[in-house]
Amino acid sequence: MNNKIKQVALSAAKQAGAILLKQFNNFDRAKVQFKTAHEIVTKADLASERIIISAIKKNFPEHSILSEESGLEENQSDYLWIIDPLDGTTNFSMHNPLWSVAFALTYQKEIIFSIVYIPVLGEIFIAEKEKGAYLIKNNKKTKLKVSDFKEGKVLNAFCHGKADKDIKRAINYYSYQKMHGFDCRQLGSASIEMAFVSAGRIESIAIPGISTHDAVPGALLVMEAGGRVTDYQGKKWGMGDYDLIASNGLVHEGVLGVLKMV
Predict the structure, then answer these.
(1) Within this chain, do residues 168 and 196 fall inside the same structural domain, yes or no?
(2) Which of 3, 114, 149, 204 has the fewest Cβ atoms nearer than 10 Å?
């Protein structure tokens, strides 16, 4: 993969993050609009999306684009950008700093590059297929590696899709892990939760009903940091799969076991 892709992606993520930070500091929750009963959208989502899509079209006009708010713009290309311009919109609306700019590039349906930028924390997580995952912070680049916790101090996370059945499955999973493990939390941004798995900050994230734009950027981070990403049957996760588990690998079978019980 050429350096231009990384340079354009980093620049677009930083520009989008800067716009979002300005709006975040003065955001009025009364201005949110509902997409579904459990999903909201803000002008901030759309502003971030415009920046990223504009950068891609300017530099790679032949590439296809799939974005959360604008949908699919398909060209005759093996390259597809998958964009979540503001992952964690509800967190953003309530002045919770755990929101991110997340997008990835696929080639022939394989994820080859991804970026997750958390502006409030000043952290950029990047991954390139077969070349590892890294954290960029304060102009320092650090290689990411999943944790080696298997029991005791294990921290699990969960998220869910918008369907009622997925919310119920997530609540059942959370209840079991909360009562029988050290802790289980919902951070509110799938990309951040998977970035945290890749950095060894938590051990796993289970997400029933995950959407493609939520899954793709973080999935590559976890895999390139030495973790494991599967569906709920334990098969290697692929784009379009309905459910996702991302973990350090060591707790993976335990998570699968809990999901089968609940």
Answers:
(1) yes
(2) 3
